[in-house]
Write the structure tokens for this entry.
Amino acid sequence: MLKECSLNSVCDKMEITFKVFRFNAETDYLPYYQDFTLEVSEDEVVLDILNRIKWDFDGSFSYRRSCRHGICGSCAIKVNSKAVLACKERVIDLYKIFGSNMTIEPQSKSRVVKDMIIDKKDFWSKYDSVKPYLVSEIDENPATEHLVSPEQYEELHEADTCIQCGCCYYSCPAVEVNENYTGPAALAKAYRFNFDPRDDAKHERLDIVNKLGSGIWDCVKCFECAEACPKGVDPIHKITALHTQTFKEGKAKSNVATRHAVFFKTSINQHGLLDEGLLVAYSEGLGVVKHIPEAISMLKKGKIVMPWNMPKSKNLAEVKKLVKISSTAKF
Ligand code: SF4
Ligand code: SF4
Ligand code: FES
């Protein structure tokens, strides 16, 4: 006898209603959703559901898949807005989060070609822009191997596991509002080669990813990419490492983002607290004028203080030690 599922128990079968996004850019004026209520067993992944919908109900239903082993990146979609690899994500795990109603959608509805299939042109052109390959003058007949130590490889390993699925890219709010932003996947790839001891294009790549408006300074540090990545690449930490590398390599230019980083550290070091008023003034330079009305309102409400009234943390000595230990680049 089948054991019925509840949110907290192991079970044999669950009845789930999948609300599936449908759109054919060639024939449809607007997208629509179709409901499929299916009995799902504990060992089925989302790709099994896509297959059942196509094979049992509608042969025109379209989606990408290839390896079925979480390594080609082609089956990435969203379930209840959560980025997933359809061949890796077990339905029961989603059921434990969302219950028995699941909306299946493509990674990006504005880029849909057909149903789950999207046009990833922007993703690939940004990926291409960071020189996502090793640049090295290689001796065709080397006398010895060009070794990478285990410690050096450890630094690259996470970034190396990227399968270009786009889960991070299509979950990134900075990509949504800024079409020029390179995005987490390509920036994690820039990290991958910039931290490879065999690579010779570090400075060239830093010039590319260091541009204001499209590069590392346009990340808003929301951590969505780390949350969305099915391979544990953790793009935001790679972007942060690139921030530090631009300072270390003398590539950081004075702009609103780099001044923000510099003052952030200065304020924490001086007060153990963030002087939010002066942070904006220092980062924006003359541009601060446009913030004067908000600054006055914040001053009145006690949200910021004048610099001479800035309090100090009672743990300042401890904070200073922590800043010293964690600082890897001179600003
Ligand atoms: S942390 Fe940065 S790159 Fe990652 S999703 Fe947020 S804005 Fe995008
Ligand atoms: S970083 Fe992760 S989520 Fe982004 S493309 Fe690579 S594997 Fe996919
Ligand atoms: S089919 Fe290849 S990652 Fe899912």
Notes: The first strand starts at residue 13 and ends at 22. The pocket of iron/sulfur cluster (ligand 2) is lined by residues 162-168, 184-185, 188, 228-229, 231, 233, 235 (CB under 6 Å).
